[in-house]
Amino acid sequence: MINYENGLFEKNKYFANQFRNSPFIQFIQSEQMAESSTRELLLDCVQVLSNYFQKVVMLRNVFCDDSQFMNITIEHLQEELGHNLLLHKDRNERPPVWDPILEATCSWFAWKMFTLNDEQKTLLIHLVLETSANIFFPIAKTALCKYRRIQYLQIHDIDEKHEQMGKELLVKDISPEKLERLFLVQQQGWDILNATCNRILSLTADNHPPLSN
């Protein structure tokens, strides 16, 4: 049974609620989505994050050293593999946008797969990336798919499951030092995730496309 007394998951609810009420999520639900060029530009930006997420789950699997986490990394990789290619197809295979800030924030998550331990990677992927995905995808599906079918948005029905993966391992043999480090990774992860989404909002809201890759 997961021990919630350490506050890690309660803190995550706080971050998730902030994200749910963020300008980025509000934008996706706004009337601006009625403009096809705005929807296309939004997905062109999301493609960058989706491409990096594939690298994240692959790198996490490759560099997993702890047998306790191996089954989770394999299962997660198998269920996520190739989703970015579906988005590429949905976008009629347009090149993704090139923006240095978006590139930098998205690549941060991939870089952390080289520097964090398996517990910290699990937190970053499941409590930050998958938790935010579990908020984003249902809202984006409702907002965008009423205009046309987007397979990428319709296949993410298991993000709630992905959000829960590995939670019991995060609080196993917890120590104050370990918890302090997990809190730091949690805060940094949400900060970078919000910076990423704020940049997508900035690039998309005024419908001024950046350069393509």
Describe this structure in words.
By secondary structure, the protein is an all-alpha fold. The protein is 73% helix and 2% strand. The protein has 11 helices and 2 strands; from the N terminus they run H-H-H-H-H-E-H-H-H-H-H-H-E. It has a two-stranded antiparallel sheet with strand order 1-2. The longest helix is centred in the C-terminal third of the chain and has 30 residues. 36% of the residues are buried. The N terminus is likely disordered.
Secondary-structure topology with pairs:
Layout: H1 8-20, H2 23-28, H3 36-62, H4 67-80, H5 83-90, E1 97-98, H6 100-115, H7 118-144, H8 151-154, H9 159-164, H10 167-170, H11 176-205, E2 211-212
Antiparallel strand pairs: 1-2
Helix pairs in contact: 1-7, 1-11, 3-4, 3-5, 3-6, 3-7, 3-11, 6-11, 7-11
The best one-word shape is globular
Mean pLDDT: 88
Percent range for helical residues?
over 70%
Question: What oligomerization state is this entry in?
Answer: single chain
Order of helices and strands: HHHHHEHHHHHHE
Rg result: 17 Å
The number of helical runs is 11
Spatially, the strands of the biggest sheet line up as: 1-2
Question: In terms of structural class, how would the helical and strand content be classed?
Answer: mainly alpha
Strand content: under 5%
Tally of DSSP β-strands: 2
Largest sheet: 2 strands, antiparallel
**CA distance, first residue to last residue:** 47 Å
